[in-house]
C-alpha cells in the first residue's frame, strides 16, 4: 500500500502594504504547517517575467520598494517551501504604484503671531520619488477648532499654499489638522497629527506697526518739504499783498509759517516835515 503525502498548503491572507511609494508584501503562514517552512516572494511588471526578491526566508513579509518604479504596474506572488516541497503560488491583483499607494500625512507646524496662527505644511515624504514630481497639483484641506470644541471645527479647502495664516480670536488655544488631496486619481492622504497652539494679544503684528510708522514718517517728511517751499514762496523778502497770501496759503503749512513769522525788531521813526521857505519882509 502506497502512502500519499499531503500537499504543502499555500500561505494565506496575502496582502500589499504600500504607504508613500513603499511596498511590502505580507502573508500568513499555512495553518497547522509552521515548522521548517520558508518562503519565496517574486514580482513582475508589464514588460518582465517574475523576478525573485526574497527566498529561503522565514519572515512573513518581503520589502519590494527598492525594486519598483513610481509609475510601475506590478503583480506579486509568494509560496511556501519545505525540504524540497513547495506550495502553489498565491498571486496578488495588479497593483499600480502611483494610483494604489496610500499617501501618508503631511507635516504640520504652527507658529502663533498675535491673534493669528501661521500653519506651515510639508508634503508627505515618498520613499522612491518626490511628492511634487508625481502629484504636482496637490492641494491641502485645513481643519481647525478651539481646543475642546472639535464639533465646531471650521475648514479651509483646496489651498495650494504651504504657508497659511488663520485669523483667530486672541488668547485662545486652537488645534489644527491637515489633509493632502491630489487631482491625480482623486487621492486623499492620511490626516496629520492634531497640533495645537495658543494665540496671543490681538493686533499684535510688529511688521504691520513698523510699516504704518514708516509710511507716516514718509508722509510727514513730504508734508514739511511741501510746506517749506510754499512758505518760501509766500514769504519772500519783498512782502506779498495780504489777500494774495491768504488765498494761496495751505492751512497745513500754517504752523511752519508761524514759526518763520517771528516778531521783527521794532523800528523807530522820526517825523520830518519839510516846509517851503518864505522871504522875510
TrEMBL record:
Source taxon at top rank: Eukaryota
Pfam families: Interfer-bind, Tissue_fac
GO molecular function, one term: cytokine receptor activity
Domain Fibronectin type-III, residue spans: 10-100
Cellular compartments per GO CC: plasma membrane
Keyword Transmembrane: yes
Stored Gene3D superfamilies: Immunoglobulins
Keyword Transmembrane helix among record annotations: yes
TM annotation in the entry: 207-231
Name of protein: Fibronectin type-III domain-containing protein
Keywords of this entry: Membrane, Transmembrane, Transmembrane helix
